[in-house]
Amino acid sequence: MNDEEQFAESLRTQVTRVAPRIDVDVTRVVPAARRRRAARAGGVTLTLALALGGGAWAATTLEPPGTTVPGGSMTMEVEPSPAPSGPPVTSSEGDRLGDSTDNLPYGPVIPPEGWRDATYFHVVTRVDGSKKGEEPEDDSPMGIERWYGEGVSFELLSFGPAMRDTVGYLVMEGNEPISFTWADIAALPTEPGALHDALLEKFEPTGVAEDAALFNAAHLITDAPAPPAVRAAGWELLTSLTPVEVEQDVQDAEGRTGSSATFEVFDRTVTVIYDVERNVPLQLEDSIGKMHSRTVFLTTEFVPLPEEVADSAIEVPDLTAMTREDVEVVCLQEHLACTFTEEESETAPEGTVISSDPAEGALVTWGAPVTIVLSAGP
Q1: Distances in whole angstroms, Cα of residue 320 to Cα of each of 262, 273, 314, 335, 351
Q2: CA atoms of 95 and 117, how far apart (whole Å)
């Protein structure tokens, strides 16, 4: 028995356990699985980390298998996400990573076309924090590694890469929150005076536009996906503003030398250490009251999204015109919790798929619910 026959037999066993009536269409399922295996074979570092650290997704809470749903069908059983085993994944700099899923998207993400091949802002940081006068509870810093994209972003957690909520950049909370999109930042002026005017205009509705511009100039040059020319203008702007104290030949926590810009705004003290020659941030310190945090920037670069990171998201396939039997196989293969309902249709043959929710191309997590609409005929 060759590899494809073994895979088909294994799949038949899984499908029979869930829905014994299904006849697996090997000609449709095996090629898709082979493509997935080939795509995943390219990764080395993160692929190994995933093998050690387990799956990146916790199964979504659903109605129990066997629950009757509208349309007369029942929820399908979905195997749980693999439990983490072995040592946890670390950042590319070897730092321990968090495991909080607070920033994972609640629902499906609709990515822009070509999201896999797009450019992402890759940021690797080392973060620690403490209270003044107190020893930190854990003296080992936390690593954060993210790939910020336009419409979809990812973060490397202790159990592997995962999609994260894509919020705006340079966010100011309020009655009407203000933020910049990826495209907004890319279009910012590269001359300091014009950049200042653009920030003031954007934050004018806050009533504290000057303070907002000062505060966000620091974040524009550290953790926002600003093109190099915009970043350079941001540093010139920051160091030219009156409340900012500039100092040369300052060392960051890693012993790297740069220039520092310190200012007080919004009841906090902020210090940015910047390597002017390389046009990259080195460190951002933020103190408010007794709380103090320090973020060391180890990597800030625009790169393609690694395949193993992209593969951590499940892309809802095109199920249109498939039969229920074939869809159930695909749902098992893709780890989706599919439920079925029916609608009358004058055009779609009875028993075939009219649509899905989320639709084709949406990015979801392991075990995500997908509602399949089948044709009940005319």
Answers
A1: 58, 54, 18, 18, 11
A2: 28
Question: What's the rounded Cα separation, in Å, for the pair 206 and 173?
Answer: 9
State both tokens at 71. 């349309």
Same domain, 329 and 270: no
Distance CA 167, CA 151 (A): 9
Predicted confidence at residue 168, as pLDDT, reads 87
The whole model's pTM is what? 0.75
- Residue 315's Cβ-count burial label (10 Å; 0-12, 13-18, 19+) is middle
In this structure, are residues 99 and 159 in contact, taking their beta carbons and an 8 Å threshold?
yes
Q: Give a yes or no: residue 235 inside a domain.
A: yes
- Residue 245 and residue 343 share a domain: no
Tally of domains within the chain? 2
Give the SS3 label for residue 61. coil
The answer to the question of residue 97 being in a domain is no
Q: What's the pLDDT band for 138 if we cut at 50, 70, 90?
A: low
d(CA 270, CA 82): 42
Among 17-31, 56-70, 138-152, 239-253, the range with the most confident prediction by mean pLDDT is 239-253
- Residue 202: the pLDDT is 95
pLDDT value at residue 167: 76
In a domain, 261, yes or no: yes
Structural domain that includes position 346: 3-85+314-375
Instruction: State the amino acid at position 65 in one-letter form.
Output: P
Which ranges in the chain belong to alpha helices (H)?
A: 3-18, 26-40, 45-53, 182-186, 192-203, 209-220, 228-240, 307-310, 324-334
- Residue 18 pLDDT greater than 50, yes or no: no
- Report the pLDDT value the prediction gives residue 81, as an integer from 0 to 100: 62
Average pLDDT over residues 6-17: 43
